[in-house]
Each structure stands twice: as C-alpha cells, then as structure tokens.
Amino acid sequence: MPVNSRTDSDGATEGETLPINELFYSLQGEGKLAGVPSVFVRTSGCNLRCWFCDSYHTSWEPTHAQMTLDEIVEEIQVHEKADHVVLTGGEPLIHTESATLLERLNELGYHTTVETNGTIQPGAPIDLASISPKLSSSTPTPERDPKGEGEWEDRHEESRIDMDALSGLVDRYESQLKFVVTGPDDLVEIEQILDRVRQATETNITDSDVLLMPEGTTRDELDERRNAVAELAMEHGYRYTPRLHVDLWNDAPGT
Ligand SMILES: C[S@@+](CC[C@H](N)C(=O)[O-])C[C@H]1O[C@@H](n2cnc3c(N)ncnc32)[C@H](O)[C@@H]1O
Ligand SMILES: Nc1nc2[nH]cc(C(=O)O)c2c(=O)[nH]1
Ligand code: SF4
Ligand SMILES: [Mg+2]
C-alpha cells in the first residue's frame, strides 16, 4: 500500500488513492436511472455487514487494488460513450478521497450517482444520492451470518440507521430511497423509517422517490421474489425497481 494512504478497521482510507474492487462499464441496473449506460467504480470496505450483501468482497472479505485518483479517472475515460458514473462499494462514503473523486468527475462534466447505505454525510458534489437504508431484515444474526457466528450483529444493528445522516443526504441532494425487500414484513419498518425521515427533512419526499427492490443476487432468486415485491409496490403506492443487471447477466462479475 502506498505510504500516502492509511486504513482503519472498516477499511476506510485517507490519501490520494482509493481501494478499488472493480471498475467496469455496464447499464445502471437499479433505480430511477435504470438502463442508462454508466461506468461503475466499486470501492472496497464497508461500515455495515448485511447478510445478503451482493458485493461480499467489499464487505465481509474485502479485496482491492489501491488506485490513484488519476488512474481511476483515466480508466473511466476509456469508456468514451459513458457520461454517467456510479460510485458504489462497499460503502464509498467511508473513504475521504471519494469526495475528491466526485469533485473531479463533476468538473469533467460527468453525471454522478452515489450508491450509499445512508449512514454517512459526504461533503461532495453528487447528482443523484441513491440511498439504500438498511432494515432489520438485513442484520447478520448467527443463523444468517455468511462468514462467522453473528459477531457483526450488534454493530450492524446499532449503525444501520442514522437519521441525521439520512435526512442530511435527502436535504442536500436529489435522491432516491431504495429499500431491499425480503418479504411483506419489511413494509412496516419501511413506513416507520419514511415517517421519521419526512419529519426530519425540509424536502418533500414523494412516494415515487421511494423504490422497492427485490432481494436476490441471481435470476433464480429474483424469479421467486420479484412479483411479490411488485405487488407490494402497487399496494403501497411506491415505485418498483428491477435489478436489470441480474435479469440480463445473472451474477456475472463486472456487470
Ligand atoms: C453493494 S451495495 C453498495 C452501496 C451501499 N453500501 C449500499 O448498501 O447502498 C449496492 C446496492 O445493492 C443493494 N444490495 C446489496 N445486496 C443485495 C441483495 N442481495 N439483493 C438486492 N439488493 C442488494 C444495496 O442495498 C444497494 O442498493
Ligand atoms: N449494472 C449494475 N447496476 C448497479 N446499480 C447499482 C449497483 C451496485 O452494486 O451498487 C449495480 C451493479 O453492480 N451493476
Ligand atoms: S451496506 Fe451495502 S456494501 Fe455494506 S454490507 Fe450492506 S449491501 Fe453490502
Ligand atoms: Mg450491485
């Protein structure tokens, strides 16, 4: 690792580099911009541990190459047709250098989306804050822990909702609230979180800013769940979002 960067226990870094798990060109698969050709920059390291995390090697067992911001920007520019960049992870906002990258991309005229769990307030230009607050159904209990025996349960549970960070993101940026739905019981908690955010913000959060996304990392898993989640969206008046990349490419890396 270069001498100008430091790492803490979440994998958070400071310095002119970012830990990059993967960088690839694809179609935005989720949310209001689904279908838009975009370059994805996936940082490694996360402050949460969802049992279902579809990016296991950025959270439970992080792997990455340390890249300078110059190298990242150059690699993005290789994809000449793309004018949208999606910064994701892991949790990209745990890294101070994510803000510098977003400033540079803004200066270059890119539209930037940040995929975030909503627990950290950035000080950076972002065109779309794609916030995915984590429900209790994401918590890695001993029965659902993909790696250990529930060692992350308490920390995840305490950290997964931070109302100041969540409302700050909504007030500062154009945003969408994208909830991963594992079953009908999740809707009670989604409504509770929405009530609290709506009370804490000055921004009008419309029901079409609220997206329900089926949990699932493979086509087979989504085949089992997507219709039930679509029905829940209709019943409650929220927007449904597909996982277009899974429908198109299943769980292939770099998509
Ligand atoms: C890997 S996360 C990275 C960004 C950030 N850490 C977050 O959770 O929002 C990217 C997106 O994938 C979603 N996601 C992760 N695992 C999933 C799964 N098994 N099924 C559906 N969505 C999932 C997250 O909720 C988030 O919207
Ligand atoms: N195609 C595609 N769209 C995405 N939208 C959000 C993603 C993410 O992992 O944050 C993602 C992803 O991994 N692939
Ligand atoms: S917050 Fe995002 S990256 Fe972190 S474990 Fe959950 S889904 Fe994975
Ligand atoms: Mg993904």
Automatic annotation (TrEMBL):
Keywords: 4Fe-4S, Iron, Iron-sulfur, Lyase, Magnesium, Metal-binding, S-adenosyl-L-methionine. It comes from Candidatus Halobonum tyrrellensis G22. It is an enzyme of class 4 (lyase). CDD domains: Radical_SAM. Its cofactor is S-adenosyl-L-methionine; [4Fe-4S] cluster; Mg(2+). Pathway: Purine metabolism; 7-cyano-7-deazaguanine biosynthesis. The gene is queE. Residues 33-251 form the Radical SAM core domain. GO terms for molecular function: 4 iron, 4 sulfur cluster binding; carbon-nitrogen lyase activity; magnesium ion binding; S-adenosyl-L-methionine binding. Homodimer. This is 7-carboxy-7-deazaguanine synthase. Residues 142-158 have a biased composition (Basic and acidic residues). [4Fe-4S] cluster binds at residues 46, 50, 53. It comes from the Archaea. SUPFAM superfamilies: Radical SAM enzymes. The lineage of its organism: Archaea, Methanobacteriati, Methanobacteriota, Stenosarchaea group, Halobacteria. S-adenosyl-L-methionine binds at residues 52-54, 90, 132-134. Mg(2+) binds at residue 55.
